[in-house]
Amino acid sequence: xxxxxxxxxxxxxxxxxxxxxxxTEFAETSARxxxxxxxxxxxxxxxxxxxxxxxxxxxxxxxxxxxxxxxxWRAAGREGDALGYAFPVSRRRPLCLDRxxxxxxxxxxxxxxPIAEGTWxxxxxSAQSALGAVAAVLGGETRAFALTRPPGHHAGAxxxxxxxxxxxxxxxxxxxxxxxxxxxxxxxxxxxxNGTQDIxxxxxxxxxxxxxxxxxxxxxxxxxxxxxxxxxxGEGATLNLPLARGATWADYAPALDAALTAAIDWGADxxxxxxxxxxxxxxxxxxxRLTTPDMRxxxxxxxxxxxxxxxxxxxxxxxxxxxxxxxxxxDGLES
Length: 335
Ligand code: OKP
Ligand code: ZN
Hints:
CATH superfamily: Histone deacetylase domain
Strand content: 5-15%
Number of strands: 9
Bound molecules: {5-[(3-aminopropyl)amino]pentyl}boronic acid, zinc ion
CATH class: Alpha Beta
Protein name: Acetylpolyamine aminohydrolase
Shape: globular
Number of helices: 10
Helix content: 25-40%
Low-confidence stretches: none
CATH topology: Arginase, Chain A
Domain Histone deacetylase: 50-331
CATH architecture: 3-Layer(aba) Sandwich
Keywords: Hydrolase, Metal-binding, Zinc
Cofactor: Zn(2+)
GO biological process, one term: epigenetic regulation of gene expression
Largest sheet: 7 strands, parallel
Strand order of the largest sheet: 1-4-9-8-5-6-7
Number of domains: 1
């Protein structure tokens, strides 16, 4: 399977993360990249396809913010990473976004998504890796994988959040749709892909299904409930399958089958899979109990649909097991 990855993706290295009331190591560490690269075959550098496919799903003002936020933070005399801390939850007048602090609040959903020196280059490269995998499938490959990082599925059209900046899965799905494909996104990360869902929520031309920890107990808390089914032209084109903490393969398999069956029934001709290895039993920030052999089963179930597949990497924080989990998933996908 052709795998796309760009070395600039490792350059995103926030210093710290505010977790459960204290500062800890940033969980989405660049050590994840080394672990994944060591476990998969050779990877290809993607071509640079520019900003246009990114601007097809993200707002121009948000993209400009991502490109300039770190430099503006430094220019304001700050040390460390740029991080939002004041959020415009009520908006009775147009926002004044001159100050970098105001922009960070406007374009961020949370305080776990710092912008460091290499963040823009890394998230841009990650989106280009996704577009490389799309081009491979449009060129006739039945499967291609983008070793994306930072992840993307929590990023909305005009906000970062949940360690995500540009939404590589949404960029890839849009590129496939623009090429005439009928795309179903299947998100199997532990966390609900709220950014991806939101980007396509009112559209009937891209299907979105997600299996994830119940938002009543887990991040991102406000989205991913079973009654979120899409709106307007998108009504019925969103499917949420939340599972309780502690889920094992016995709980997971029927949900995966339901998601894939719904994608086929909707008429998908191409699958876009947001793969997260954080459903693994040893994940330090997640609470499902899937095993490494289960990762192969996820890949094999997707392969069993006999449709072209573009795979995108999302989360997975048990770094010591990440390579084996990704390799198992890819092995299943090739079966
Ligand atoms: C990104 B992806 C914070 C706990 C949750 C955010 C999780 C983002 C996961 N103390 N932090 O979906 O794997
Ligand atoms: Zn996740």
